[in-house]
Amino acid sequence: MEKYDAIVVGAGTAGCLAAKTVAEAGLKVCLVESKPREEIGEKICGDALGEHHLKFLGLEKPTGGELEAKIDGIKIFSPDENTIFTIADKDFIGYLLNRRLFGQWLLRKAVDAGATLQDSTTLRSPIIEKGAVVGITAKNLKSGNVSELRSKVVVDATGYFGMVRKQLPAEMGIDRDIANEDVEACYREIRQLKQETENTRYCEIYLNQKASPGGYVWIFPKGGARVNVGIGTCMRKTGYPNPKEQLYKTTFCKPMFEGSTVLAAGSWFDPVRRPLDNMVGNGVMLVGDAASLVNPIHGGGIGPSMLSGYFAGQQIAEALSKGEPTREALWGYNKRYIDTYGKKQGTLDIFKLFLLSCSDEDLNYGMNQKLMTEDDVLKAGMGDDFHLNITETAKRVFRGIRRVGFLNKLRLTVVMMRQLSAHYNTYPSTPDGFDTWRAQTVKLIEEGKQKLLQ
Question: What is this structure's pTM?
């Protein structure tokens, strides 16, 4: 039986950063991944990463083809495509990734730091003793052998399906299931166009409730006349439309796709909600998509997942230097992630409800008449407060006479985002008081649903 200080299950962006950070602290860490080594990094997603995440993590820009295109911002199209908001800010500047090469780059950093990789190995179950996770059982997919791996901490980095999370006992106080209303079904293709488009520096997002209810269509330039094009549709209602069919009906009829060829395609699920309120238990931590660390508005998850792996690794090293990795000892990871990035994701849960409540007609008029402005979207996307002074509010009311309901919902959204942001500022630094904090969080989110989706 092999023993480690930490076992990280899943060698995605979150898992590799967690393993790297733990190994750099001089601890013994095992990185367990079901894919063979050469396929690590392969994942179907939007492939976008904000440059500020690399800077925050102290990572240099990779130069081996990992970064395929530089992005200067986002263009958001109204449903009728007559109005375009251009969002250009340091937090929206970044890159389109070659996902496999980038994943291999992160994997090398983890292994070079001292992490042991067990690839082609799948999790069977966490080992739980005396209320704590003390390791895993795993199966080698090549040999068929099942083995026990023991550790002081197990990190769940298995993505949306949360293979460790779902097997934890309820008394650990970690939510095991994600409601369908907080999930988007996504489909994406990499397309080779016949010629380069005019737009090679902006990610394009198309809002359209008919095409992508509760989500959006995206077209991201990857360079060399290639684009990452996809769609996300909210699963909050039974009978939600098939995302692939919707993409073919609504997007691939655009002239730019005439004569294009499919280079890669696939589907996946994105948890688009606030972070799990608690991401730790005795001997266990959740990172990345397993902890629902995806931006609720634009669905970006690579940057937040890397941050979570980094923070988790730091907390493991700190906890083990002082004693046992109890829930209390690991709690600082919750606090740091929430204070750094999670608060923004939490407030965006309210803005997501606002967008869900809007019809295409609302959005067309609201964007065209500047009832909702580019500055609003920028601040919402960054989790910042809106600042509507009396003069500006009066102008919006005058322009919005035909859509008073839309304007009222926007005003209510601003108020509720502020309330939730203030509440996240009170996230407890220890498990004491957490139950009360969580009850108030659920109350605020439910109020948002009742007031905005009624």
Answer: 0.94
